[in-house]
């Protein structure tokens, strides 16, 4: 069972540049996203990853979440069918269900340079929660089923993000289950 370990450099918007497989740098204007190299197997009880906001960029429009293989990577997480996202510029959750234009629901605090945002998909309870700087923000999404890829997106020029899929200690020390 392969788990996500890095960003997939061949499965991203052309607006993103990547230097290490873990760090993403956004240079150009326009919405963009990148998917992990492997989906999270639903056989996992839970899967947690964290994203360090190295630089918020020009306007701190950053989305952290997960998506299906067919989700469009030229939009932010949560703004295309099969994707879910927590956005740093407004603290809202986005989930596109295919009816009209997606609108965000208030969820948590804004995030920016220096923050670490975690995302946990729990396949035992079919829920998702996020963390900010190691603090659990509560259930974000329910009834999650299927195979998903971790993803990040941005509309913020010069934004820089680095993911931790478990190769180093997480800021969140709580139970992901």
Automatic annotation (TrEMBL):
UniProt-listed PANTHER family: RAN BINDING PROTEIN 9-RELATED (PTHR12864)
Short name of one Pfam family: SPRY
Domain B30.2/SPRY: 1-170
Protein name: Concanavalin A-like lectin/glucanase domain-containing protein
InterPro entries: B30.2/SPRY, B30.2/SPRY_sf, ConA-like_dom_sf, SPRY_dom, Ubq-SigPath_Reg
SUPFAM superfamilies (alphabetical): Concanavalin A-like lectins/glucanases
Signal peptide: none
Keywords: Lectin
GO molecular function, one term: carbohydrate binding
Key word Glycoprotein present: no
């Amino acid at each position: 069972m392969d788990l996500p370990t890095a960003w997939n450099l061949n499965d991203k918007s052309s607006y993103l540049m990547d230097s290490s497989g873990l760090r993403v740098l956004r240079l150009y204007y326009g919405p963009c996203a990148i998917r992990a190299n492997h989906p999270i197997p639903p056989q996992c009880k839970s899967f947690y990853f964290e994203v360090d906001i190295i630089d918020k960029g020009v306007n701190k429009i950053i989305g952290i979440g997960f998506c299906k293989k067919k989700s469009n990577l030229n939009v932010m997480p949560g703004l295309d069918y099969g994707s879910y996202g927590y956005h740093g510029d407004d603290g809202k959750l986005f989930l596109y269900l295919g009816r009209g234009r997606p609108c965000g629901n208030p969820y948590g605090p804004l995030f920016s340079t220096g923050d670490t945002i975690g995302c946990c998909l729990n396949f035992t309870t079919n829920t998702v929660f996020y963390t900010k700087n190691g603090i659990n923000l509560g259930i974000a999404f329910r009834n999650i089923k299927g195979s998903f890829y971790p993803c990040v997106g941005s509309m913020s020029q010069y934004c820089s993000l680095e993911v931790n899929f478990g190769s180093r200690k997480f800021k969140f020390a709580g139970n992901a289950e």
